[in-house]
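Quick one, tokens below. Sequence please?
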């Protein structure tokens, strides 16, 4: 990688690392930090609901008006408001800051993806390499650094709050309603959950929110002073003039005119379903139910560490293995984990299994996140902003649906839903690969015919 390109990729990656160390850690404990009348869970629902709306129209407007760099900066400021809102949370402050974060999230991810993809394609042209190979390497490096935020965010919250929790145990505790058998009606009866002894003291809350807010501020300063602006005039072929709310919304919707975008929706939504299940159901119905909530942080640290490492690994080796084989591997791992979770009865005596499942699922997620982002960037090269807006929209819809039925369905039914989305998503993804293969063959044949005609024309002129 050229030094300039590598420097910019590292700045973006570490900026996201610092930002999501704060947001990721805060999201993981939100339901425990603000349990009054479900305020914490409600705030998460507002975030992903607003993210869907913002993905429809905001990314093209902000990216075209301010460029990728300053769109990232503006969006990061939206994330900081959420940490500030948690200093003195109430239904007004937290819901409002949740909405601000949600509206900033769509442009943040779209501008990041556009920046990485554009940088990768430009460097690939300079180096004479395949666009997909370089883009996958860039996304692999990004996710290597970014995914480690799951380690630091959970570690910070655990260290700050650990002295305020206690273990409520019962020797007669039955684990028969843990795992796939867990249903909302039974979760209220669990007696082995670690909960705050008397809420979170203000001093601990202020300390934690101060650390998270400071981490976000450092992320903003890093991007402002160290990241180079990137000119998108050559790549953004679909953007003519200054986009308005209406034509930006229309541009995002018009992306759906591409049949390939429709075919990728189920796989994109699966990413949200899978992560939503892991964050809400696996941690609650398996880890918390059998081990206690104090183990959730450690399990999620395992997930973040493995995800970080393998994001870089798969981004690098994809140029040798091809993306189809890796996507099939990810599907096989996810399907295997789902089947195990359906059949397994979690028990504290099986401690390593909790971490093994988390590690395997993180490998699958590393493949999907890295290669699917790269696939979007190369597949929709002429409409990157609209394409990545759609990516965040459909992935977020997967999150919202997963959170919406969280308190309504048993875990076994949720697992069957995730498995169904996976199978449909992979089937339609293979259809997209088939269409691209035919397109490339047709293009190669057309080029060959043109060369033959040119050669014959030259021979005829010579004669």
């Amino acid at each position: 990688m050229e030094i300039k390109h590598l420097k910019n990729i590292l700045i973006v990656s570490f900026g996201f690392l610092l930002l999501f160390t704060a947001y990721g850690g805060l999201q993981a404990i939100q339901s425990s930090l603000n349990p009054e009348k479900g305020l914490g869970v409600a705030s998460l629902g507002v975030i992903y609901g607003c993210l869907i709306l913002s993905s429809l129209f905001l990314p093209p407007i902000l990216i075209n008006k301010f460029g990728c760099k300053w769109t990232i900066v503006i969006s990061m400021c939206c994330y900081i408001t959420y940490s500030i809102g948690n200093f003195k949370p109430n239904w007004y402050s937290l819901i409002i800051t949740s909405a601000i974060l949600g509206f900033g999230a769509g442009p943040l991810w779209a501008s990041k993806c556009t920046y990485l993809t554009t940088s990768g394609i430009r460097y690939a042209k300079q180096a004479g390499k395949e666009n997909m190979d370089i883009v996958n390497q860039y996304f692999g490096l990004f996710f290597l650094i970014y995914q480690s935020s799951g380690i630091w965010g959970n570690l910070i919250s655990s260290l700050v709050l650990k002295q305020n929790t206690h273990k409520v145990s019962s020797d007669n505790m039955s684990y028969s309603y843990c795992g796939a058998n867990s249903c909302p009606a039974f979760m209220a009866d669990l007696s082995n959950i670690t909960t705050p002894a008397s809420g979170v003291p203000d001093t601990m809350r202020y300390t934690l929110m101060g650390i998270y807010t400071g981490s976000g501020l450092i992320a903003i300063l890093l991007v402002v002073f160290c990241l180079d602006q990137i000119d998108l005039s050559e790549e953004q072929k679909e953007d003519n003039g200054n986009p308005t709310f209406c034509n930006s919304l229309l541009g995002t919707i018009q992306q759906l005119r591409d049949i390939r975008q429709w075919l990728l929706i189920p796989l994109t939504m699966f990413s949200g379903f899978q992560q939503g299940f892991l964050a809400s159901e696996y941690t609650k119905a398996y880890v918390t139910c059998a081990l206690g909530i104090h183990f959730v942080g450690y399990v999620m640290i395992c997930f973040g560490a493995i995800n970080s490492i393998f994001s870089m690994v798969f981004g690098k080796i994809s140029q040798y293995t091809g993306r189809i084989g890796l996507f099939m591997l990810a599907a096989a791992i996810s399907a295997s984990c789902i089947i195990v979770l359906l059949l397994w009865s979690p028990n504290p005596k099986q401690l390593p299994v909790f971490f093994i499942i988390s590690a395997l699922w993180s490998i699958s997620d590393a493949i999907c996140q890295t290669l699917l982002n790269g696939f979007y960037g190369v597949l929709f090269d002429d409409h990157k902003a609209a394409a990545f807006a759609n990516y965040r929209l459909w992935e977020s819809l997967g999150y919202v649906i997963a959170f919406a039925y969280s308190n309504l369905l048993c875990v076994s039914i949720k697992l069957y839903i995730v498995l169904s989305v996976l199978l449909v998503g992979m089937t339609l993804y293979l259809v997209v690969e088939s269409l691209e293969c035919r397109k490339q063959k047709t293009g190669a044949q057309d080029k060959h015919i043109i060369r033959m005609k040119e050669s014959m024309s030259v021979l005829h002129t010579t004669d």
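Residues 3-229+245-462 form a domain with the Growth Hormone; Chain: A; fold (CATH 1.20.1250.20). The longest helix spans residues 411-462.
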